[in-house]
Amino acid sequence: MNPQRDRSIDLETVEIELLLEGVFRVYGYDFRNYAPASLKRRIWHTIRRENLTTISALQDKILHDSACLERFVLNLSINVTSMFRDPSFYLALRTHVVPLLRTYPFIRIWHAGCATGEEVYSMAILLQEENLYHRCRLYATDINEEVIKKAKTGIFPVQLMQEYTQNYLQAGGKRSFSEYYTAAYNSAIFRTSLKENMVFSQHNLVTDSSFNEFHVILCRNVLIYFNQELQAQVYQLFHESLINFGILGLGKPETLKFTAYEQKYQQLVATEKLYRRVS
């Protein structure tokens, strides 16, 4: 056993704990229960980008420089996303969820952890094609204010449209995907009509409470960054926010199995992690 090696590991753990505690106490962002491996990787990524060499130096800079804090939060909250990501998920929404939504006079859908908004616009397109969007309200939230601002614009890189078109078609798209956007200056600007029923807002799944009652909550590939304690906290938030028989959609790596909420849902489409609240 190498005592110096053990000491360095312990120091790194202590430094991370102090950093996260400081961020929580000063700014109110609570990352203390994020999955350790992913968290450590993103912290060191931020250290390199800030031209620093230690976690303690990053803590000092963050606590005295709110701009550095914003960059840190952005780095910790970035999720990979795309339009109609996992096309089979959207096909399952069309096939199994849309018929349920038709039974409601008005529909509230929450995209929790929406990042830059690609999946919100995907949902709007799907609902327009199913003639449901006019009686829907899409609430899109994220912890990071910068990505919310970007999501509001409805502007995405035009070079991604070929990939998104393939996703759209595999997801059961009924029109030409190019009808939904205008290409200009290397950007794809999506139709204003898609944003009519969207509400974008900053919301922290860790520290903020329920803000409405929803028919559908989608939170895909966000909980993988949380430890079990924090996941349980978020599942409680979702359960409190869903109407009875409401739909919860998770990412492929995520599951309600072995949680306190497993018996409160039935699997609607097991392969796509779509659940229906039953109690």
TrEMBL record:
Pfam families in UniProt: CheR (PF01739), CheR_N (PF03705)
Gene3D superfamilies: Vaccinia Virus protein VP39
SUPFAM superfamilies from the UniProt entry: Chemotaxis receptor methyltransferase CheR, N-terminal domain (SSF47757), S-adenosyl-L-methionine-dependent methyltransferases (SSF53335)
Superkingdom field: Bacteria
Cited PROSITE patterns: CHER
InterPro entries in the record: Bact_Chemotaxis_MeTrfase, CheR_C, CheR_MeTrfase, CheR_N, SAM-dependent_MTases_sf
Domain (CheR-type methyltransferase): residue spans on this chain: 4-256
Single annotated GO MF: S-adenosylmethionine-dependent methyltransferase activity
PANTHER family recorded: CHEMOTAXIS PROTEIN, CHEMOTAXIS PROTEIN METHYLTRANSFERASE
Protein name stated in the entry: Chemotaxis protein CheR
The organism of origin for this protein: Aliterella atlantica CENA595
Lineage of source species: Bacteria, Bacillati, Cyanobacteriota, Cyanophyceae, Chroococcidiopsidales
